[in-house]
Structure formats: C-alpha cells, structure tokens
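Task card 7
Instruction: Convert sequence to structure tokens.
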Amino acid sequence: MPEVMLIRTSYQESEASIFSIRNQVFVIEQAVPLEIEIDEFDSAARHVLAYLNHTDGHRIPVGTGRITADGKIGRMAVLKNFRGQGAGAAILEGLVQIAFEEGLDRVCLSAQCQAIPFYERFGFVADGPVYQDAGIDHRQMKRLLSEE
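Output:
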C-alpha cells in the first residue's frame, strides 16, 4: 500500500488543492451543487490534505477534510482512483487528533449512509434518523474523546 502523508493546512493556504478534490468528489461525482459545497465555515476551519507518492516520485494531493472549532468533522473527500489506499483513514485520524489536541471532548460528523461502516471502524456511533443533505442520505455520528 502506498505511503500516505498528511499535512495540516488552512483553506486560504491550500484552496486550489482542497477545491479541486472537493469539486471532483462532491460536485462532479455526487452532483452536489457548487454553491452549497464551498461555505462560510471553510475560512475558519482547520483542514488537512492527504498526499500519496506518485510512481515518478512526486506527491499528489488525493484527499481532504476539515474540522470546525466546535468539533464538527466534514467535507471529507478522497479522489475515486485513490480510495482504499489509506487516505481516508489518515484524514479522519488526523482530524480527530486535532480535536484531541484542542481539548475537545467529542467530535461529530454528518455521514453519508453508505460510509457509516467506515466511520464505525474509528469509534463513531450513528445517532438519530436518516436525513437528506444535497439529495444524499445521511446520519449524524459522534465519537467521545474524553476516555482516550
């Protein structure tokens, strides 16, 4: 499996890479309207970018995610051709680590229903009913950090 490298960044610092990944995954692949994909939380949130080493030696950004000051993880996306190679796990673990370092006692997220088993592997628990967001079924999930 290729090595995943994760960097912490801001939207302002890495806008081109973050936008490119999210546009490809959410807007093009999942038909989420562009006007709701980029929002007012991007500028204040902490972001991460996952890179995989390319065969010719250079790194390419393949995934991203963000966490807001109140512990909401979101906008997790990995480019289709790079899924299943550890980038999603690295992103999620990196965002949880940021929350832990900032002293938060829990994190939460809005999971697409098809992704719930992925989040459950990292200690997240589904909470509440299924609801629609951008035409896609979601459920709220949370993970307590206080016992870690």
